[in-house]
Specification:
The protein has 276 residues and is of the alpha/beta class. Helices cover 53% and strands 6% of the residues. It has 2 domains: 195 residues, Rossmann fold (3-Layer(aba) Sandwich); 67 residues, no CATH class. The chain has 12 helices and 4 strands, in the order αβαβαβααβααααααα.
Length: 276
């Protein structure tokens, strides 16, 4: 499927899925990164002025991201609201009564809090304006578990959840997303100078072929990623052998497999127990 056909398909699916749920308005968190810019552009093409975007910087957010998001919204005539969350972030960082004081994981704890606070804003806006929250997590992030549960991973519909990060870059070019946004280092903006690829240890150009090979191997064996966890050692070892045979380096393979199967629970609906 060429990119223009893919875009047309995504437009049609977005239109159908939103209206099938009885909605006509959507809301997107616009971060200044390529993923949210692609999703916002797709939604703008389909819903026009029925799209609203929220720009939700924390105290540690890179000011360039806010500037890029604002310029993008203005250039594409997309409605937006800037709602800083620094006040709530400060309260959380000072609390120490219900939870232990912030420790060596301080940056990540505050980052996850901010991600969930952004989603609170998005869902409150959605409830107030009878809109649906549209997600901005790509397939690479979802497979890696690189996201905050009930934070940036939460949404009603995700247009790019089946696109690897490198595919999102290609889609961005076809949608004429500004080159400055495409070229910047991917970042969840969880804390100052945070970078996806620095956290992951590898570039998406390295990661995506591995994820595609893993997905193909799983499909060939009729396995579903979200049905597995680190406890499934025999299956993971078999997958590892297959990936090594395909030419992937051992430490790279072990690092990504551990991350992936440690986080598969993030892509599942909550387990509902059935007492007998």
């Amino acid at each position: 499927m060429n990119l223009h056909t893919q875009i047309d398909t995504l437009h049609k699916q977005l239109d159908y899925e939103v209206h099938q749920r009885g909605f006509s308005k959507v809301v997107v968190g616009l971060s200044g990164g390529v993923d949210s810019a692609v999703v916002a552009k797709l939604c703008a093409n389909v819903f026009g002025h029925n799209l609203h975007t929220l720009l939700l910087p924390s105290s540690n957010s890179n000011s360039t991201h806010l500037k890029d998001a604002t310029n993008f919204a203005k250039t594409h005539n997309i409605a937006y609201t800037i709602a800083p969350i620094a006040e709530f972030e400060e309260i959380f960082s000072r609390q120490n009564t219900l939870f232990p004081p912030l420790d060596s994981q301080q940056k990540m704890r505050i980052g996850n809090f901010c991600a969930r606070m952004r989603m609170i804003y998005l869902y409150d806006f959605a409830a107030t304006h009878k809109a649906l929250v549209i997600g901005t997590s790509n397939k690479s992030e979802i497979m890696l578990g690189y996201g905050t549960l009930y934070g940036d991973l939460a949404c009603a519909i995700n247009p790019i959840g089946n696109l690897y990060k490198t595919e999102v870059f290609s889609l961005a070019k076809a949608l004429k997303i500004p080159q400055a946004i495409i070229d910047k280092k991917p970042s969840a903006d969880l804390f100052e100078n945070q970078s996806d690829e620095a956290d992951l240890g590898y570039s998406y150009a390295q990661i995506d072929p591995f994820l595609q090979a893993l997905q193909s191997t799983l499909s060939a064996q009729n396995l579903c990623l979200t049905d597995l966890s680190l406890a499934d050692t025999a299956i993971i070892n078999s997958l590892r052998d297959s990936l090594l045979a395909q030419g992937f380096e051992s430490s790279f393979t072990d690092s990504l497999l551990h991350r992936i199967f440690m986080n598969t629970f993030k892509a599942k609906m909550p387990t509902i127990l059935t007492p007998k």
